[in-house]
Known about the structure:
Layout: E1 6-13, H1 25-34, E2 35-42, E3 56-58, H2 59-73, E4 77-80, E5 96-97, E6 100-102, E7 106-109, E8 115-118, H3 126-130, H4 132-158, H5 166-182, H6 184-194, E9 199-202, E10 209-215, E11 218-224, E12 233-238, E13 241-246, H7 247-250, E14 265-267, H8 270-291
Parallel strand pairs: 1-2, 2-4, 4-6, 8-9, 9-11
Antiparallel strand pairs: 1-12, 3-14, 5-6, 7-8, 10-11, 12-13
Helix pairs in contact: 1-2, 2-8, 4-5
Amino acid sequence: MNSTKRKVDLVIISDAHLGLFGAQATELLHYLKSIEPGRLVINGDLVDMWQFNKLLWPKSHMKVIKYIISMIERGVRVHFLPGNHDEMLRNFVGFRMGTLSIENQLVLELEGGEKAWIFHGDVFDVTMKGSKVMARVGAFCYDMMTGFDLMFNYMLRRKGRRQIFLSKKLKDWVKKMVNSASKFEETAARRAQEHGYDYVVVGHIHKPEMREIALESGSVHYLNSGDWIVNLTALEYHAGAWSLFRYFEDMPERQIPAEVEEMGEIVMSGSRLFEMMTREFEEESEVIRVEG
């Protein structure tokens, strides 16, 4: 094991949305390769299956999948909690292989006996409960905006100017309205308190957050791992303390190593892409079975 990797007891990532134009897969892979987690929780929307017919799958996106599989092979405990964009994987809840498990939710006991309740969070989103069609339309528009961001920011970087993420402003505005209507954070905290949990850990709304929510009968710690499209954030728990890792601020070395650089694109049909991903997984899982 590389001794230069930073040891972390628990890492939680969500909303990578691999398969979208705006997914920052290269940066996510860079982050994953910089740490040595005891446990990794993928809290939903790792792959954006809503947009699977885009016919575009950069090699960097497959590299993230393969690296996570290699973590399982090395014995890292990986919990996959599907979200609304990869909800078809909820059909496989209960699946276990080696150190990988697919679950709807996860309860972890932390130091001092405190309990953290972890799940994606779409169950509390009124846009999901109200109209899945509208949610998909919104996702499509957001995808188009992130694609525009990539081209626009490429030109800004060439001119030495600061990047602007219009998709983030759009997402923040929409989610602010949704959050105000549904009281997403407070609802999650109240449900956690009802179940006797000290922490509620979600993703989904792409808003990285760590705060204590005061309720009538006490308080609950609300944590959100953010996303890997605009914010590039992850939750970390180590030596009894939580922290929010921000790639743009906290990555010790922002220069991306050559081995994780973008290596071009694969353009194919959605069915061909799914077939390729399945084959890659089966090949890696055979190694896990033999060595495990």
